[in-house]
Each structure stands twice: as C-alpha cells, then as structure tokens.
Amino acid sequence: MSKARDGGFNRNLQRVNFGCRSLFLLTLLIGSFSTIQAQDNSQNKGITSGEQPVSLAQPIIEIHLAASNGNAAKVSELLKNNPSLLKSRDENGMTPLLVAVRDGRSNVVTLLIESGADIAATTKIGNYDALSIAVKNGRKDIISILLDKGADANRKDGNGDTPITLAQKEGQAEVLALFKARGYDTSLPLVLTWVAVETPVAQVDSSWLIASLKASPDSRRVACVAHMSNKWCAIVDGKEEKPYDDVSKVSFSPDSKRVAYRARSGNKWFVVVDGKEEKPYDKIGKDSLIFSPDSKRVAYVAQAGNDAFVIVDGKEEKPYNGFTSLIFSPDSKRVAYGAKSDDKWLVVVDGKEEGPYDGIAKDTLIFSPDSQRVAYGIKMDDKWLVVVDGKEEKTGDTSTDPIFSPDSKRVAYVAKTSDKWLVVVDGEKKKLYDRVGMTTFSPDSKRVAYIVLAGNRQLIVVDGKEEKSYDKIVFPIFSPDSKRVAYAAKAGDKWSVVVDGKEEKPYDVVSMPIFSPDSKSVAYVAGVKEGGFKFGSDGKLAYVEGVKSKMVAVIDGKEEKNYDGIFVLLGGGNLVFDSPASFHYLAQNGNTIYLVEEVLKQQKVNSTRQP
Question: Using CA atoms, how far apart are residues 102 and 94, in angstroms rounded to an integer?
C-alpha cells in the first residue's frame, strides 16, 4: 500500500469525482469524507502552492508576502532592517524560504540562502524541508539551487520519504533524471506495501432490495432479498432461492456456511434453513431468528393461534404471551430468553423460570463467556435493576447494561444515583458523570473502558483516566494484547478514529476500528459523501442508495483503493484480518460486488495510488 499522499504540495487541489450509486451497510458509521482529493490538509497548511500565509505581526506578513510574490527587492529591504526575519514563521510553520520554494520564486530562494536562511528548516507539521517541497512541486531550478547549497537529499520527511522516493511516488520523471545526472541512486527501493486482489462474488440486479443486502460474518459471502414476477426470493452469492409470497432479511450462521430466513406462503410463515422449510406458523417473530455460536443450532419465536413459542432445533418450548432477547450461550449448549406470562415477565434459562418481574430490559440478557453465568436487567416497582446469577444488584436508583469480563470472573454495569450515572465494576463504584454507556473489558480482563457524558461533551475513561473530550464517541475497543485502545470520535461535523489517544485523518463516515491479531495494526472503513446517508430507526447507518459517495479501507492511517461502497454490516461483514499481514473485505463498484483480499508484500515503489 502506498504511503498517504502529502496533499498540501500541489498547486491545484482537485475535487474528487464521486461514483455512481452506492450500496453498502455500515455499523453505526459516523465519520468523514473530505471532498478534497488531497490528503489531510491539517498536516499541510500553507505548503500548497498558491496558499497565502495567515496574518501575524506586520513585518512577518510583509516578508512572507514578498517571498510569495517574488519581490526580491522588498525581501532585501526587510532583511536589512531586521535580519531575524529569516527565521520568522507564519501560523503554518512556513519560513520565508519555504514560502519562496513553494511558490517557485527562484530569485528570492537564492537571495534568502545567500542572506543566511537555513535550508534545513522544516515545517512544524509534516516535517517538510525546502528540498521536499521543491520536489513535490516539480521545481527543477530550485532543486538545483538547493542541492548546490548543500541540501540533504537523503533526509526523510514526516511520512518517511526522502526527496528521491517522494519523486518516485509522484511520478516526477524529470526530477528523477535531475537527481540521477547528479550521481544519486534513483532505482526503486523495495518497501512493504499492501497489495489487493479483487474477486467478483455477485452482480447487483435492479430487482434486489438494496436495504436487505447483508454480508456473511467472514466477509466472503453476500445475500439479499429480490422481487421478481410478483414473488420474493432470497439471493445468496448471486444465486436465486425458491420464490415465496414474502421473504425476510437473510441471516448467515457465525461460521458463514449456513443460511436462514423467514418466508411466507399464503397466510402461513415458516423458517427456511439451508433451503429446507420448517413447520408453518401464523407468525414468525421479526428479527428473532438466530444461529448458535457453533452454527449447528437454530432458534426463533413463532405463534400459532393464541399461543407463542420459542422454537429450538424445531421443537416448541412452553407457550407464553410474549418474548424478548432470545440467545444461545457461547458454548451453544444453553438457551435463554425473556418471556411474558399474563402481566409479568420471566427469564427462562434452559427451561427454568426466574422471576417474576415487572419488565425485562431489552438486549441486556447475556451469558458469561464461559457459559456458566447469566445476567440481565429487570424492572421492579418502577425501578430498573441488574440481576447477576439470580441475585439483584441494588446500586443506586437504577442499574442496567451488565457485562462480563472475557474470563467470566468480573462483572460491570451502569447505575444511576439521583441525577448522576456511574459504572460499577465488581461492586466498586466509579466516578459520577452526567451519563455513562458502552462499557468494555480488555481481552485479558484486567482493564475497563467506558464512554461518559460530562456537560455537553463525551470522553472515554480507561482504567479511571479521562481522555480528550469530543462531541461524540463510539466503538471503544482494546487490542488483542490489551495494551492499546481505539475508538471513533466526532468533532464538529467530522469523525476520526482515535488510536492510543492520537487522532487519525477526519472523514464524514468511519466504521468501528479493528486491531490486527498481533495488535500492531489498526484498520477501519472511511467514507466521503455528497448527499445523505440513510439511517434506521435505531439510529444506526443502514445503507446508502443513490448518493454520490466513496468508501476506502484505511490501515495504519494509509488509504487503500476507493470503492462505491464497502460492506461493514450489522452482525455481518467487516474488515477481517486473516493474519497480521493479510486482511479482506467485501466492496462494491458499479453493479459488481468484490471480495477484496489485501496482503502485505515487498514491492518496488512506483507512484502514488490514484483514487
């Protein structure tokens, strides 16, 4: 993969030409897509040819403007009165020499150097020196002046590029010829770069219901629902399944090998698993269909007449009036769900009832990772409580959202006391905030991170330490070795991925960051848009249709190839690391959906990858 382009050097910033219709699903994506084709301008302010420095003190304004305009007489006059102006910098960290180089004023460049200007001076952001700026802008006359005055052709800029490798990436053939004529080695070096291979997996048809598009958990398969000849059918890997009067969204098993969905024929609904129809019912619970973690078992909610059941492996369990939160245990051996009996709610675990309660908090029922423990949120006497292993936790006025640590030994949940919220970990109350949410343990179970609201700002708290505040924060995750933390953060109308406290390039849309198995690399999907994204009722970004947009995989801050859409799906596709040196994802260009497999290889540097 090529290094991120420097953006601020080019005289003319070009606008991105956005592609045709996009199809993609994203997990609560929130990010940013700068409409500028060039890189992160925050790292290159003032370096782009043609930009004017920001106003500072009057003498500095004059010498920088004179240098930019090529007014050698004015520059000479100002230096005669105040020689220290040679080292003056504008707000972008540009000295008069850097400005003159940027704008191709060779007469002023010569004057400034002969007056004692430091040719090794660099920008404060990006670490670019005069020679790097001259190379990027193709200023051969100035390159010659700088080399004659002793400029270092082996010095690396902030991206790790020497002037020669920068010229190679930019395809500056005449600049390379100049270096070669002066005896420099301009052969292409071997560098580690990500190499992509695209394999078509499906062709999008006009009959497809775009909102139903879904990728498998391993991001190698794709399915959707299509309308054909007054019938509906599931499309799996581009192949049509049996048509019905109605078909729901397709679900893949966790191992991505099996497929299931709800279907209706006449006035009867049934579940279709791997092409086989199960028993028909009056209704099948919407979004109730699940596979077990080992992909061998299937469960869902069905209704026949006035009786409603949980169906597990084709067998009806005890009838109740209603259900919520049907789950399998991580070892796939146990089943739990919330069930309504008359006006009370029960939690049913392996057929055994717990309760009764006034209510069950939605999506709070969980098994511990070792499958031995159970926790959930309940309502009793207008008060919400957490129940862990059958015991009510009575911290504060309200408690909810329990989670277990990966080793199953620790428990955390959110509690409210008066008008403040806090996290409770192993019974220990943490600091009070205006709101608390999205708590997570590290893989080694030793660390805890969560998002809090303080005033109108959100920040992440890691092991009790508060990090920088933002307008909004989502997706906090630890690396597999538990040493690193990443999340997505919003500042203004832009989103960035923050890794170890450092913000990456802002975009309009970013996905949840993913660490590589060795914890050394971070990848995510980012997007640039013109128009609007379509959000579901839960506030999560569902898909984009008919919107001019581009999506790109970003790894360690470097952008890969642009696509019309990249699948980052709810419960489905994502960027998937196969090893520390390889990852893959599903992407769409035009009407074709591709499996994109990226492998880290040693290659000779060529030119900067174009979008």
Answer: 10
Cα–Cα distance measured from residue 24 to residue 542, given in angstroms and rounded to the nearest whole number: 8
What domains sit in the chain, N to C, each tagged with a CATH number?
41-187 (1.25.40.20), 350-367+370-404+407-441+444-472 (2.130.10.150)
Q: Which helix (H) or strand (E) holds 520?
A: none
SS3 42: helix
| Burial of 69 per CB tally in 10 Å (0-12, 13-18, 19+) | middle
Q: What is the pLDDT of residues 35-94, one digit of tens each?
A: 222 233 334 444 444 444 333 455 667 899 999 999 999 999 999 999 999 999 887 778
Q: How far apart are the first and last CA of the chain?
A: 13
Answer whether the bond into residue 402 is a cis peptide, omega within 30°. Answer: no
DSSP 237-288: TTEE---BSEE---EE-TTS--EEEEEEETTEEEEEETTEE---BSEE-TT-
The identity of residue 499, as a single letter, is V
540-595: per-residue pLDDT in tens?
A: 444 444 345 688 899 988 889 888 888 874 335 788 999 999 999 999 888 899 99
What residues pair up with 497 in beta bridges, in sequence order?
A: 488
Question: Which residues are bridge partners to 309 per DSSP?
Answer: 302
Distance from the Cα of residue 185 to its chain's centroid? 39
pLDDT in tens, 83-125: 999 999 887 778 999 999 999 999 999 999 999 999 999 987 7
Q: How far apart are CA 313 and CA 301, in angstroms?
A: 12
DSSP character for 320?
A: B
Which residues, 6+ apart, have CB-to-CB distance to 555 below 8 Å? 1, 194, 521, 522, 523, 583, 598
What is the Cα gyration radius of the chain? Answer: 30
Query: Which H or E element spans position 196?
Result: strand 190-203
Give dist(CA 289, CA 244) in Å, integer. Answer: 18
CA distance 377 to 261: 29
- Which of 170, 202, 296, 215 shows the shortest CA–CA distance to 543? 215
Provide the angle, in degrees to the nearest 10, between the axes of the packed helices 58-69 and 106-114. 130
Helix (H) or strand (E) holding 169: helix 163-170
How would residue 602 be classed by pLDDT, with cut points 50, 70 and 90?
low
Residue count of the chain, please give it: 611
Q: Positive or negative CA dihedral for 591, 34, 524, 605?
A: positive
Contact 479, 515 (CB under 8 A): yes
Q: Are 355 and 344 in contact (CB under 8 A)?
A: yes
Identify the residue whose tokens are 């010498």: 63
List Cα–Cα distances, 319 to 93, 282, 368, 600, in angstroms: 72, 14, 27, 54
What does the DSSP assignment read for 427-489? TEE---BSEEEEEEE-TTSS-EEEEEEETTEEEEEETTEE---BSEEEEEEE-TTSS-EEEEE
What stretches of 318-382 adopt beta strand conformation (E)? 322-328, 335-341, 344-349, 352-357, 359-360, 366-367, 374-380
Backbone angles phi, psi at 84, to 5 degrees: -65, -15
Distance CA 470, CA 490 (A): 6
pTM for the whole thing? Answer: 0.68
